[in-house]
Specification:
This protein is of the alpha/beta class. Helix content is 41%, strand content 17%. It has one domain (3-285): Alpha/Beta hydrolase fold, catalytic domain (Rossmann fold). The protein has 13 helices and 8 strands. The chain has an 8-stranded mixed beta sheet, with helices on both faces. The chain is globular, with a radius of gyration of 18 Å.
Protein backbone atom coordinates (compact mmCIF):
# COMPACT_ATOMS: atom_id res chain seq x y z
CA UNK A 1 0.00 0.00 0.00
CA UNK A 2 1.34 3.43 -0.89
CA UNK A 3 1.56 6.29 1.58
CA UNK A 4 -1.22 8.08 -0.30
CA UNK A 5 -3.49 5.06 -0.10
CA UNK A 6 -2.81 4.72 3.62
CA UNK A 7 -3.69 8.38 4.12
CA UNK A 8 -6.98 7.90 2.28
CA UNK A 9 -7.97 5.22 4.81
CA UNK A 10 -7.53 7.53 7.79
CA UNK A 11 -10.74 8.83 9.36
CA UNK A 12 -10.59 12.61 9.62
CA UNK A 13 -12.95 14.99 11.44
CA UNK A 14 -14.02 18.55 10.77
CA UNK A 15 -16.84 20.95 11.55
CA UNK A 16 -18.93 21.98 8.54
CA UNK A 17 -21.58 24.66 8.38
CA UNK A 18 -24.70 23.23 6.76
CA UNK A 19 -27.06 26.12 6.26
CA UNK A 20 -28.12 27.33 9.70
CA UNK A 21 -26.44 24.51 11.60
CA UNK A 22 -22.96 23.12 12.21
CA UNK A 23 -22.23 19.41 11.90
CA UNK A 24 -19.22 17.44 13.12
CA UNK A 25 -18.32 15.28 10.14
CA UNK A 26 -15.96 12.30 9.82
CA UNK A 27 -14.62 11.46 6.37
CA UNK A 28 -12.43 8.79 4.86
CA UNK A 29 -11.32 8.13 1.30
CA UNK A 30 -10.85 10.06 -1.93
CA UNK A 31 -13.41 12.90 -2.39
CA UNK A 32 -13.32 12.36 -6.16
CA UNK A 33 -14.94 8.93 -5.76
CA UNK A 34 -18.64 8.14 -5.41
CA UNK A 35 -19.77 8.99 -1.90
CA UNK A 36 -21.41 6.88 0.78
CA UNK A 37 -23.19 8.74 3.57
CA UNK A 38 -23.40 6.78 6.84
CA UNK A 39 -26.19 7.94 9.20
CA UNK A 40 -26.22 6.66 12.77
CA UNK A 41 -29.23 5.88 14.93
CA UNK A 42 -30.52 7.52 18.08
CA UNK A 43 -29.83 6.89 21.73
CA UNK A 44 -28.03 8.58 24.64
CA UNK A 45 -24.34 9.04 23.89
CA UNK A 46 -24.44 7.85 20.27
CA UNK A 47 -22.09 9.38 17.70
CA UNK A 48 -20.88 8.73 14.17
CA UNK A 49 -17.51 7.26 15.25
CA UNK A 50 -19.10 4.79 17.64
CA UNK A 51 -21.25 3.45 14.79
CA UNK A 52 -19.02 3.71 11.74
CA UNK A 53 -15.32 4.47 12.37
CA UNK A 54 -14.32 0.79 12.37
CA UNK A 55 -15.95 0.22 8.96
CA UNK A 56 -15.07 3.34 6.99
CA UNK A 57 -11.47 2.40 6.05
CA UNK A 58 -12.58 -0.76 4.25
CA UNK A 59 -15.18 1.18 2.23
CA UNK A 60 -12.64 3.93 1.50
CA UNK A 61 -10.87 1.64 -0.95
CA UNK A 62 -13.64 2.40 -3.45
CA UNK A 63 -15.76 5.22 -2.01
CA UNK A 64 -15.63 8.60 -0.33
CA UNK A 65 -17.06 7.90 3.12
CA UNK A 66 -18.97 10.59 5.02
CA UNK A 67 -20.30 10.00 8.55
CA UNK A 68 -21.73 13.02 10.39
CA UNK A 69 -22.85 13.32 13.95
CA UNK A 70 -26.51 13.90 13.12
CA UNK A 71 -27.89 17.29 14.14
CA UNK A 72 -28.66 17.15 17.85
CA UNK A 73 -26.22 14.31 18.52
CA UNK A 74 -22.59 14.02 19.55
CA UNK A 75 -20.44 17.02 18.73
CA UNK A 76 -22.74 18.49 16.10
CA UNK A 77 -24.81 21.52 16.96
CA UNK A 78 -27.67 21.10 19.41
CA UNK A 79 -30.22 23.80 18.55
CA UNK A 80 -31.48 25.74 21.55
CA UNK A 81 -34.28 25.76 22.20
CA UNK A 82 -34.57 22.30 20.72
CA UNK A 83 -37.21 22.12 17.96
CA UNK A 84 -40.62 21.15 19.27
CA UNK A 85 -42.84 18.61 17.59
CA UNK A 86 -41.04 15.41 18.39
CA UNK A 87 -39.64 13.06 15.76
CA UNK A 88 -41.58 14.25 12.68
CA UNK A 89 -40.16 17.76 12.79
CA UNK A 90 -36.71 16.64 13.86
CA UNK A 91 -36.56 14.02 11.09
CA UNK A 92 -37.21 16.63 8.39
CA UNK A 93 -34.80 19.12 9.96
CA UNK A 94 -32.08 16.50 10.14
CA UNK A 95 -32.75 15.33 6.59
CA UNK A 96 -32.35 18.88 5.28
CA UNK A 97 -29.13 19.35 7.25
CA UNK A 98 -27.69 16.26 5.52
CA UNK A 99 -28.69 17.57 2.11
CA UNK A 100 -26.94 20.83 3.01
CA UNK A 101 -23.89 18.81 4.10
CA UNK A 102 -23.69 17.18 0.67
CA UNK A 103 -23.91 20.64 -0.88
CA UNK A 104 -21.09 21.92 1.33
CA UNK A 105 -18.90 18.96 0.34
CA UNK A 106 -19.73 19.32 -3.36
CA UNK A 107 -21.39 15.90 -3.49
CA UNK A 108 -24.27 15.73 -5.95
CA UNK A 109 -25.40 12.19 -5.15
CA UNK A 110 -24.45 9.50 -2.63
CA UNK A 111 -25.38 6.05 -1.48
CA UNK A 112 -27.14 6.35 1.90
CA UNK A 113 -26.65 3.87 4.75
CA UNK A 114 -29.09 4.52 7.59
CA UNK A 115 -29.15 2.65 10.90
CA UNK A 116 -32.35 2.82 12.99
CA UNK A 117 -33.26 6.52 13.16
CA UNK A 118 -30.75 7.01 10.34
CA UNK A 119 -32.99 4.85 8.16
CA UNK A 120 -35.96 7.08 8.94
CA UNK A 121 -33.93 10.14 7.97
CA UNK A 122 -32.81 8.43 4.76
CA UNK A 123 -36.43 7.79 3.82
CA UNK A 124 -37.25 11.45 4.46
CA UNK A 125 -34.41 12.55 2.14
CA UNK A 126 -35.80 10.15 -0.47
CA UNK A 127 -39.13 11.94 -0.18
CA UNK A 128 -37.96 15.53 -0.33
CA UNK A 129 -34.88 15.33 -2.61
CA UNK A 130 -34.78 11.87 -4.21
CA UNK A 131 -32.12 12.84 -6.75
CA UNK A 132 -29.51 13.11 -3.96
CA UNK A 133 -29.69 9.36 -3.21
CA UNK A 134 -28.24 6.66 -5.45
CA UNK A 135 -28.97 3.44 -3.51
CA UNK A 136 -30.24 3.05 0.05
CA UNK A 137 -29.30 0.59 2.77
CA UNK A 138 -31.76 0.56 5.67
CA UNK A 139 -30.33 -1.36 8.62
CA UNK A 140 -32.55 -2.06 11.61
CA UNK A 141 -34.52 0.92 10.35
CA UNK A 142 -37.39 2.66 12.06
CA UNK A 143 -40.43 3.98 10.23
CA UNK A 144 -42.78 1.00 10.45
CA UNK A 145 -46.17 1.45 12.18
CA UNK A 146 -45.43 -0.85 15.09
CA UNK A 147 -45.49 0.02 18.81
CA UNK A 148 -42.16 0.59 20.57
CA UNK A 149 -40.63 -2.50 22.13
CA UNK A 150 -39.74 -2.74 25.82
CA UNK A 151 -36.08 -2.35 24.91
CA UNK A 152 -36.71 0.74 22.80
CA UNK A 153 -38.64 2.25 25.69
CA UNK A 154 -35.53 1.76 27.84
CA UNK A 155 -33.65 3.90 25.33
CA UNK A 156 -36.38 6.53 25.12
CA UNK A 157 -36.72 6.88 28.89
CA UNK A 158 -33.01 6.61 29.73
CA UNK A 159 -32.87 10.01 31.40
CA UNK A 160 -35.21 8.91 34.13
CA UNK A 161 -32.15 7.13 35.57
CA UNK A 162 -28.98 8.22 33.70
CA UNK A 163 -26.63 6.01 35.71
CA UNK A 164 -23.65 3.85 34.67
CA UNK A 165 -25.70 0.76 35.50
CA UNK A 166 -28.59 1.94 33.31
CA UNK A 167 -26.20 2.63 30.43
CA UNK A 168 -24.65 -0.84 30.71
CA UNK A 169 -28.10 -2.39 30.81
CA UNK A 170 -29.09 -0.43 27.70
CA UNK A 171 -25.99 -1.38 25.71
CA UNK A 172 -26.50 -5.13 26.07
CA UNK A 173 -29.98 -4.75 24.59
CA UNK A 174 -28.47 -3.70 21.25
CA UNK A 175 -26.78 -7.04 20.54
CA UNK A 176 -27.63 -10.71 20.45
CA UNK A 177 -24.28 -11.96 21.76
CA UNK A 178 -23.25 -9.98 24.84
CA UNK A 179 -19.79 -11.60 24.69
CA UNK A 180 -19.14 -8.90 22.10
CA UNK A 181 -18.24 -6.58 24.96
CA UNK A 182 -15.53 -9.01 26.17
CA UNK A 183 -15.25 -7.65 29.69
CA UNK A 184 -15.24 -4.02 28.52
CA UNK A 185 -18.93 -3.29 29.12
CA UNK A 186 -18.30 -1.03 32.13
CA UNK A 187 -15.59 0.93 30.31
CA UNK A 188 -17.76 1.38 27.20
CA UNK A 189 -20.74 2.40 29.33
CA UNK A 190 -18.69 5.03 31.17
CA UNK A 191 -17.37 6.48 27.91
CA UNK A 192 -20.82 6.69 26.40
CA UNK A 193 -22.32 8.06 29.61
CA UNK A 194 -19.87 10.96 29.61
CA UNK A 195 -21.34 12.12 26.30
CA UNK A 196 -24.93 11.26 27.21
CA UNK A 197 -24.93 13.35 30.37
CA UNK A 198 -23.92 16.57 28.64
CA UNK A 199 -26.74 19.11 28.99
CA UNK A 200 -27.03 19.69 25.23
CA UNK A 201 -27.20 15.97 24.44
CA UNK A 202 -29.85 15.40 27.09
CA UNK A 203 -31.92 18.35 25.84
CA UNK A 204 -31.86 17.10 22.24
CA UNK A 205 -32.80 13.56 23.26
CA UNK A 206 -35.81 14.71 25.26
CA UNK A 207 -36.98 16.88 22.36
CA UNK A 208 -36.55 14.05 19.88
CA UNK A 209 -38.65 11.69 21.99
CA UNK A 210 -41.22 14.23 23.17
CA UNK A 211 -44.04 11.95 24.44
CA UNK A 212 -46.66 14.42 23.21
CA UNK A 213 -45.79 13.48 19.62
CA UNK A 214 -45.64 10.04 18.09
CA UNK A 215 -42.68 8.71 16.11
CA UNK A 216 -42.42 8.89 12.35
CA UNK A 217 -44.41 6.14 10.64
CA UNK A 218 -44.28 5.83 6.88
CA UNK A 219 -47.52 4.67 5.26
CA UNK A 220 -47.67 2.01 2.58
CA UNK A 221 -48.49 4.68 -0.03
CA UNK A 222 -45.55 6.85 1.06
CA UNK A 223 -43.14 3.94 0.74
CA UNK A 224 -44.61 2.86 -2.60
CA UNK A 225 -43.65 6.25 -4.03
CA UNK A 226 -39.94 5.77 -3.21
CA UNK A 227 -38.30 4.15 -6.23
CA UNK A 228 -34.68 3.78 -5.09
CA UNK A 229 -32.95 0.41 -5.14
CA UNK A 230 -32.92 -0.53 -1.46
CA UNK A 231 -31.26 -3.17 0.69
CA UNK A 232 -33.14 -3.77 3.93
CA UNK A 233 -30.95 -5.46 6.54
CA UNK A 234 -32.39 -6.58 9.86
CA UNK A 235 -31.11 -8.69 12.71
CA UNK A 236 -33.42 -11.61 13.47
CA UNK A 237 -32.88 -11.09 17.20
CA UNK A 238 -33.26 -7.30 17.12
CA UNK A 239 -34.88 -6.30 20.43
CA UNK A 240 -34.98 -2.56 19.75
CA UNK A 241 -36.88 -2.71 16.48
CA UNK A 242 -38.29 -6.20 15.84
CA UNK A 243 -37.65 -7.86 12.51
CA UNK A 244 -41.29 -7.19 11.56
CA UNK A 245 -40.19 -3.59 10.90
CA UNK A 246 -37.76 -4.80 8.25
CA UNK A 247 -40.44 -6.93 6.60
CA UNK A 248 -42.81 -3.95 6.50
CA UNK A 249 -40.28 -1.73 4.74
CA UNK A 250 -39.20 -4.42 2.28
CA UNK A 251 -42.77 -5.34 1.39
CA UNK A 252 -43.76 -1.76 0.65
CA UNK A 253 -40.68 -0.23 -0.97
CA UNK A 254 -41.11 -1.32 -4.61
CA UNK A 255 -37.43 -1.92 -5.35
CA UNK A 256 -36.29 -3.38 -2.03
CA UNK A 257 -34.67 -6.67 -1.11
CA UNK A 258 -34.60 -7.99 2.44
CA UNK A 259 -31.79 -9.85 4.19
CA UNK A 260 -32.51 -11.12 7.69
CA UNK A 261 -29.32 -11.95 9.56
CA UNK A 262 -29.47 -14.69 12.20
CA UNK A 263 -27.74 -14.28 15.56
CA UNK A 264 -27.82 -10.51 15.16
CA UNK A 265 -29.41 -7.75 17.17
CA UNK A 266 -29.82 -4.05 16.41
CA UNK A 267 -26.14 -3.28 15.83
CA UNK A 268 -25.46 -5.44 12.76
CA UNK A 269 -22.61 -3.16 11.66
CA UNK A 270 -20.82 -3.89 14.95
CA UNK A 271 -21.96 -7.39 15.84
CA UNK A 272 -21.53 -8.79 12.31
CA UNK A 273 -19.21 -6.22 10.77
CA UNK A 274 -17.67 -8.52 8.15
CA UNK A 275 -21.03 -9.77 6.89
CA UNK A 276 -22.48 -6.25 6.83
CA UNK A 277 -19.50 -4.91 4.90
CA UNK A 278 -19.63 -7.73 2.33
CA UNK A 279 -23.37 -7.38 1.70
CA UNK A 280 -23.25 -3.59 1.56
CA UNK A 281 -20.34 -3.54 -0.89
CA UNK A 282 -21.98 -6.14 -3.13
CA UNK A 283 -25.24 -4.20 -3.17
CA UNK A 284 -23.88 -0.74 -3.93
CA UNK A 285 -21.53 -2.08 -6.59
CA UNK A 286 -24.16 -4.23 -8.29
Amino acid sequence: MTATAASDREVRSQDIQTGEHRLRVYTCGDPSKLAILFIHGSGPGVSAPSNWAHLMPSFAEDYYCIAPDVLGFGDSEHPEPAPTGGMPEYTTLRARSLIALLDALGVAKAHFVGNSMGGMITLRVAQIEPARIDKMILMGSGGAPIPPSEDLMKLITFYQDPSPEAMADLLVRFVDDTDLFAGKLEEIAQTRLALATRDDVRRSHLATFNPEHGPVKYTEDELAAIQHQTLVLHGREDRMLPVAAGYYLAENLPNAQLHVLPHAGHWIQIEQAARFTAQAKLFVAG
